[in-house]
Amino acid sequence: MSVSQTMETEEDLLTCLQIKLYHPQQNSKSLYGLLPLGKRSRHSADDPLRLGRDSQTCTYTLVDPRVSRKQLALHAYRTPQGPDMLFTVQNLSQRGRLSVNSSALGYLERMDLPNKALIRFGEYEILIIRESGEAKGSFEVEFEMLAVPPSRETGMCVPTMTPVTDTGACVMNGLPSELIALGPLETDETLMCQS
Description:
CATH topology: Tumour Suppressor Smad4
Order of helices and strands: HEEEEEEEEEEEEHEEE
Strand content: 35-45%
């Protein structure tokens, strides 16, 4: 192979991780002040992408004292004969759990990152969408701030039932019970649905 065949060119389509962030207090605090919102950044595939509050050890920093110094890491990898760059997510926080599509990860545990993943820690919700590319040595990252929690858009909310007191109708995630197959309910009066 010649050198020109092994080096990435500007024409190579890079894999891109779209990282969409939400926190309930993001409008009143500058939590994302150190992130390159709305800009694509190139990242070397052989270095883990770390997110946390420590700007010395993390690739990207959240300005929030409740976030761990090193919260999570994304590791790029490829499989033999596989054309795609894939990723794992690893929890680097000793004090808190991290969930990926409702699967909890303890300290230093990691799992494969699906093409579309909802990551939660503390009050943060992060939707990561992987766009496939051909380049092997690097990938791009693009940060975006969301106005609403991504769990609402993806339907990954934890089901909650809230009785509506003025009509007596039972509502689950904002939908009337007639539209949702609830299954058996306990006989607690606060959760009873009346027809």
